[in-house]
Amino acid sequence: MPMLNSPQGYGSLTKALHWIVAALFAVQVAAGLVMTRLPDESGTARDAIYNWHKTLGLVALAVALVRLWARRAGELPPWAPGLTVLDQRIVHHAERGLYLAMFVMPVSGFVYVMAGGYGVLFAGVLALPNPLPRWAWLALAGKWTHIAGALLLAAALAAHLTVVLRHTLLHSHGLLRRMLPGQ
Length: 183
Ligand code: HEM
Ligand code: HEM
Known about the structure:
It is a multi-pass membrane protein. This protein is an all-alpha fold. The chain has helices spanning 12-35, 43-73, 85-115, 136-170, and strands at 121-122, 126-127.
């Protein structure tokens, strides 16, 4: 299987990064929802979750950059057989939304914590330099963009999974196989 996408199918790099991002996003959304609901008394445990949320979010940003490069460097495979014109439109818009979320989520989170003066202790050991001034309005804009981005992500992911699962389970078109190793 070639590393980059080709008319024969998705490349190994796209497939590997797709599942790494899916796992990272599952962890990030779960951590985000849990940590913001923990009581103040949770102290260091809550701080640790915040720290790992910030760290993995920045790792996800780096992965998204490589992924975008891989998508541009290769040639997209043709549409999967069996997709209606409406399905193709949904897939196209959902993928744009997902790519947008892959950048909006980490960047808005970063802006929020840096402009808010909270900072990032990367992997619990490295305090990242803060390139932003301490501006409350910018922090608030970052925070609300982060929350709006999570809603965008949820909508795009719901559309993405609806098409993938419907065509995999109901129509047996093997859509899921296109993103699995060895195809
Ligand atoms: C893959 C990337 C990311 C995803 C999917 C993600 C997702 C989320 C979600 C779902 C929430 C909960 C929102 C709420 O219920 O209020 C959240 C909160 C938060 N995230 Fe992220 N996040 C990502 C990256 C980051 C990064 C890179 C940072 C900082 C460097 C960050 C900082 C925060 C902070 C500080 C909160 C708490 C916001 C609040 O107080 O309401 N996130 N995130
Ligand atoms: C369990 C969750 C997921 C499943 C089962 C899944 C499944 C798939 C499948 C089967 C394809 C290939 C569609 C085709 O043949 O054209 C695909 C493509 C794609 N998926 Fe997912 N996906 C999941 C989660 C995600 C997440 C979390 C993201 C992004 C945040 C994402 C972003 C994409 C993108 C952008 C593509 C187009 C190919 C590319 O440029 O990378 N998926 N997905």
